[in-house]
Amino acid sequence: MGNRFLKGAMILSISMFATKFLGILYVIPFQQLVGTSGMALYNYAYTPYALFISLSTLGIPVGIAKFVSKYNAAGEYDTARKMFRYAIWFMVGLGCLGFLTMYNLAPWYAQVVLAGQKELANSIEDVTMAIQTISFALLIIPVMAIFRGFFQGNQNMIPTSVSQFVEQVVRIIFILAGSYYIINIKGGSTKEAVGFSVFSAFLAGITAFLILYYYWIKNVKHYNKLLRKSVPHEPRNYGNLFTELISYAIPFAILGLATNLFQIVDQTTYNHYMLVSGLDGVIVEDSYGMYAGSLYKIIMIPVSFAISFGQPLIPELTHHLTAGNMKSVRKNLVLAIQLTCFITVPAVVGMALLSEPIYIMFFNSSTPGYNAMGGDIFRLGSLLGLFMALYSIVTAILQGIGKQWYGIIFLGVSLVIKYLGNVFLIPIFQTDGATMATMIAYTFCITMSLIVIKRETGFKVSQLLRRLVAIFVFTGIMALFVIAVKFILDLFMDYNARHMLSYIYVAIAGFIGVLAYFGLAWYFDLITALFGMKFSPKQLKERILRRR
């Protein structure tokens, strides 16, 4: 635990896991309040919102983290501090511009999303209202994000972790309390409830900003001490420095848009090509809510670990590159990939094996056939988590080593792959076709990015693979345990009969799976190896023979 990157990643991991888990738990009562069509409307607003958040911040928070880390390592604390101040005002302007753009484009986007179909549950006016309401959050989120970037650049992950967690809690309270009041007390419609729910992003953002400002007041004396320790240097041209900051920020913003851009492709093609396959319009929209809303909320839990590794990794790699320490660069990037796989691989395989009871547990539907449909969507869709996690970490590495422009080229090609995949695969495989198209697109990005990273850093593939092989082997053994437990449970437990049985079913099978995987990881010292000790297939063989 002496590794600074690992400490920062663990702090963010705990926070992001709790945040994402809460983000799933609230969906259960929320979907019961607004129904599947309400969830679809909610997702129609959140997908473009996520895109505009990225556009309105331009990746500057992460760019600031990298910028601050670089100039702090060089002792130029004054340079880092001045750029932080300039970036705040720049973000205010971008946030206002993003708000105005999203608000005014909402009617056009709503028409595109609904593909001109009037038989869908939500109207163009409903979607327009939801998008315009959530756009107000763009006025506060970009400014809040710049503070997080400054703290991360100073290797302080606590403000980001606390503010993210509190932001989620406040948002959920507003969503559930507001929706319950509108529907059950006021007697309003589900459309009104969804409208207030998306507005909660703005209210939660204000709360998170106040927490970040508290941490700023708390730490400003320390930062002022560092400021006085700035080393003498030639006067900096702040136009050039801002250009440097933008060169860090914009590529990261574009790379971070991958999931959102893929979802935009889905939003603009899914309904059309699903209708082409002959499905009823209501079923098409509800399946989209399961795919783009429910599924992504579940898989973002393991993906959040990759994101939490990626955020501190960028300034950490920049710090070591500035210091000329390539050995530490290689060590940290390999460790980040291995830790990502250590958590994500067993998680997504377990979710795929338990797809239907997991869907029932969180999103149980009284509509005949919907639980089975949700389970089918989750079965293949759960595996998307691994692709999203690996993409997140390899693009963070590209950013950290200054080769982010390669990632942008790869992403551009992958968007074409995703679009063509949807066109050809959705009419044949329906929702699974959209999932497969996304997997193919991510595979291209990940593979090409790893080739660039290998060329630029010289990390040893064998060093990476020897632990990854163990992770996949242990996951395979875990899967056999889960399948065996499922076979036994199916003999006397019908999780379709009662909602509560799905909780018991998942708890038992999940516990056995977790016990098997982490038991193997502990027994063969994989957990210890990931925290710095050497690990090799030879040691595996010696351990097995010794224990015999």
From TrEMBL:
Q: Which UniProt keywords apply?
A: Cell membrane, Membrane, Transmembrane, Transmembrane helix
Matching InterPro entries, A to Z?
PG_synth_SpoVB, Poly_Biosynth_Transport, Polysacc_synth
Q: Name one GO cellular component term.
A: plasma membrane
Q: A Pfam family this protein belongs to?
A: Polysacc_synt
Q: Which subcellular locations apply to this protein?
A: Cell membrane
Record-given protein name = Polysaccharide biosynthesis protein
Spans traversing the lipid bilayer: 9-29, 49-68, 88-109, 129-150, 162-183, 195-217, 238-265, 295-314, 335-360, 380-398, 405-428, 434-453, 465-489, 501-524
Superkingdom as given in the UniProt entry: Bacteria
State the organism of origin: Turicibacter bilis
Q: How does it sit in the membrane?
A: Multi-pass membrane protein
The answer to keyword Nucleotidyltransferase applying to this record is no
